[in-house]
Design goal:
single chain, alpha+beta, four-stranded antiparallel beta sheet, 13 strands, elongated
Length: 206
C-alpha cells in the first residue's frame, strides 16, 4: 500500500517548488499533529518514478519510467507583448487502432504522434545493434513501465505476440512452416496468400 502526501501541503513556490503534475514527487510542508505546536515537518516524497527528456524534444517534454509523459514549463510570448507561462502538465494518451498508447508532441507548430512504449525504451533502455522494435514482456500493450519493455528483433516480437495470443490466426507451431517457405525461396506475398495472413505479418516472421 502506497502513501500519497495531500496536495495542500505541496511547496509550490521557490527553489523547492513542484506542481500536481509531478505526482507524489516533490517537497511538502506538513504541520505538526499537535495544533498548538509551531513545529513543521519538511518532507521530500518520491514514488520511485524517474523522468528523462524525450530525444528531439529535450526542452519541451519528459517521459517517465512508469510510462507517463509531461510537458515542461515554458513561456509563450503573445502578440500584445505579454508573456504567458505554462506549467508542468501530464499529457493525455490515446489508444491506437492496434491497442498501443500514443501522445502528441508539439514543437515549432509541428505536431508529431509518438508511441509511449517506444519513448520509454529510447530514454531508459540501451538498444543493441539489430534490435529495432520494443516488446511488452507481459503482452499488455498499455503497460509501459520500463521493467515491462525490451528491445528486440521484428522476428522475436512477432513470435512473442503469437505466444501471448495477440495475433489471431497464427499458431506458434506455424512459425517453422512459415520460415521453411521463405527458405525455399517463396516470395513474401506468396507466403502471405498461402497462409491467409498479411504481408507484414509474414515479413515479421521471416
Amino acid at each position: 500500500m502506497s502513501f500519497r502526501v495531500p496536495e495542500l501541503y505541496r511547496i509550490k513556490t521557490g527553489r523547492a517548488a513542484s506542481s500536481e503534475a509531478n505526482g507524489n514527487n516533490g517537497a511538502f510542508v506538513i504541520p505538526h499533529p499537535n495544533r498548538d505546536s509551531k513545529l513543521k515537518m519538511y518532507v521530500i516524497a518520491s514514488d520511485g518514478e524517474e523522468w528523462l527528456p524525450i530525444k528531439g524534444y529535450e526542452t519541451l517534454y519528459m517521459v517517465s519510467t512508469l510510462g507517463r509523459v509531461r510537458a515542461l514549463q515554458k513561456d509563450v510570448h503573445l502578440p500584445n507583448g505579454a508573456v504567458r507561462s505554462h506549467g508542468l502538465a501530464i499529457l493525455s494518451q490515446e489508444v491506437t487502432e492496434k491497442g498501443y498508447l500514443r501522445v502528441s508532441l508539439n514543437s515549432a507548430g509541428v505536431c508529431e504522434r509518438r508511441l509511449v512504449h517506444v519513448l520509454v525504451a529510447e530514454a531508459f533502455i540501451n538498444s543493441k545493434d539489430g534490435l529495432t522494435q520494443v516488446n511488452h514482456v507481459d503482452g499488455k500493450k498499455d503497460n509501459n513501465c520500463v521493467d515491462n519493455l525490451e528491445w528486440c528483433t521484428p522476428e522475436y516480437n512477432a513470435h512473442h505476440a503469437i505466444e501471448c495470443g495477440l495475433r489471431t490466426g497464427i499458431k506458434a507451431e506455424d512459425i517453422e512452416q512459415i520460415k521453411a517457405m521463405f527458405d525455399s525461396g517463396m516470395a513474401t506475398k506468396d507466403v502471405a496468400v498461402a497462409l491467409g495472413m498479411s504481408r507484414q505479418s509474414a515479413c515479421d516472421i521471416k
